[in-house]
Amino acid sequence: MKIAITGKGGVGKTTLASLLSHLYAAEGRRVIAVDADPDANLASALGIPRDKAEKIRPISDMAELIEERTGAKPGTMGSIFRLNPRVDDLPEGIGYRLDGITLLIMGKSKAAASGCYCPENVLLRRLIRHLIVERDEVIIVDMEAGIEHLTRGTAESVDAFIVVVEPGQRSMQTAKAVREMARDLGVKKVFVVANKLRGPEDLDFIKNNIGDMELIGSLKFNHGIMEADIRGSAPFDYSPETVDEVRDLKNRIEKYFYP
Amino acid sequence: MKIAITGKGGVGKTTLASLLSHLYAAEGRRVIAVDADPDANLASALGIPRDKAEKIRPISDMAELIEERTGAKPGTMGSIFRLNPRVDDLPEGIGYRLDGITLLIMGKSKAAASGCYCPENVLLRRLIRHLIVERDEVIIVDMEAGIEHLTRGTAESVDAFIVVVEPGQRSMQTAKAVREMARDLGVKKVFVVANKLRGPEDLDFIKNNIGDMELIGSLKFNHGIMEADIRGSAPFDYSPETVDEVRDLKNRIEKYFYP
Q1: Is A115 on the interface with B (CB under 8 A)?
Q2: Best B110, B156, B170 residue to mutate vs chain A (most A CBs within 10 Å)
Q3: Which helix (H) or strand (E) holds A215?
Q4: DSSP letter string over A98-136?
């Protein structure tokens, strides 16, 4: 199962990606968590200490390794670059392992004015497509904020998008844009997760604004998430109520895919 | 004065950009507010009704007009494209006017998998550089979340970055990346605005983590901002406490530039 988590900036994508990763791993499933945002912070949300996180080799550095295997020349990634089947074993060799989760980081900050992240996105798109998952394996991709990854088609091969929203029109606008483009990309399912709910009226607002998208879970507003971020701790270890809520939505996703 | 507002997704960039724009305009200054995020929502935060916001022509559509004036061919923007001096009058002709603010929108969502926003960013970079501001004019650019705009150099010609942070290590990491790259871009000043403060310990956390960046203002956690977003209203009309706090930080910015 391949899932991409998307939405407006700050709605809670990375928190949700970290909690789903830990919950699946706790069940003994093999999890590949992908941080697709160059302003990467999934490592921190998973609870990886900063000194270790800084040493993780980003996917963008894999170009050289992949060149060894495929013969593709650097600079040709956008057009004639191909990943051969042996890319399937790359995550184990490259990613950072933590409690049954393999974390892949797309890229870190580069030099100022050194260019866009298009090559990294092309590489990631092909990697996500070529990763073959068994039934007990889960790939969770924490997308960059906003919609550019959709115009780039980075996550076009996932089974579902989860779009996180919060009470407010701005994140709903992003959700609608995600849904439109997901359909055009051929991604069949877009789930909505309602986050930062302060009461039933917030949930009503979201239900009234998601159109025909399916609400798969709702998470209460929780200052514990901010506390975890202040301490650099994993929300998984620090916010038990939110963990329970995410477990419920995970079970609903399971029922959808394996009824 | 040209200011770019930046930071991790969801920290409050758009809210701050809208409040600064309204405050400067209320003083009778000419304000050009630029929404540089393709997942645009500055129009909503400024209080422009959705039906009108949807009709605003984005900067990305200006390519044709600029071609008329410069002879630059579409598709050549990244390399030999030039804006001639007459670009200075474009905002008045193209932007949406509201209460003394001219709003420019970089781009709207394009078709899925239609490509990146690199051409739009190149166009915007040149536009920001070529806009000549008088002392009483203010350009406020609401950047996209994260750091890709810095590797693209979109806002390289601004006088200052304001990086918005919230209590938490993740937004501090983004702030540090912004500061590093701002220096490399030649942007001399990076101000920090601390947002979503729940008490003095949150402010202490931020002060202890910003290194040598200058804290220019702090904004208390305010559910009224979320309420404004739910109603599609401008925080300027809906959150008087936050407006007062932003007025204070605006005055401090003024003192820095015109001591």
Answers
A1: yes
A2: B170
A3: strand A214-220
A4: ETTEEEEE------TTS--SHHHHHHHHHHHHH----TT
Tokens coding A31: 């999890």
Separation CA B22–CA B54 (nearest Å): 21
Residues B22-26, mean pLDDT to the nearest whole number: 96
Answer yes or no: are the C-beta atoms of B256 and B233 closer than 8 Å.
no
pLDDT number for residue A141? 94
CB-based contact A116 B113, cutoff 8 Å: no
**Closest CA of chain A from B97, distance in Å:** 21
- Of the candidates B210, B164, B213, which has an alpha carbon nearest to the alpha carbon of residue B17? B164
Q: Average pLDDT in the B199-224 region?
A: 95
CA distance A71 to chain B (A): 26
pLDDT at A92 over 80: no
Query: What is the pLDDT at residue B66?
Result: 54
Contacts of B38 in chain A (CB under 8 A): 146-148, 151
Q: Check CB contact under 8 Å for A9 and B152.
A: no
Q: Is there a contact between A40 and A13 (Cβ–Cβ < 8 Å)?
A: no
Q: Return residues 69-98 of A near B (CB < 8 Å).
A: none
pLDDT for A242 beyond 60: yes
- Option in B14, B114, B168 nearest A226 (CB): B168
Lowest mean pLDDT, pick from A212-226, B92-106, B173-187, B205-219? B92-106
- Which of the residues A230, A233, A238 would you substitute to probe the B interface, choosing the one with the greatest number of B C-beta atoms within 10 Å? A230
This prediction has a pTM of 0.88
> Smallest Cα–Cα separation from A206: which of A241, A163, A177?
A163
Residues 6+ apart with CB under 8 A from B139: B1, B2, B3, B31, B32, B34, B128, B131, B133, B158
Mean pLDDT along residues B244-252: 97
Secondary structure tally for chain A: helices H, strands E: 12, 8
pLDDT at residue B255 tops 90: yes
Q: Which residue has the tokens 């693209």?
A: B152
Q: CA B250 to CA B27: how far, in whole Å?
A: 12
Q: Phi/psi of residue B143, each to 5°?
A: -75, 165
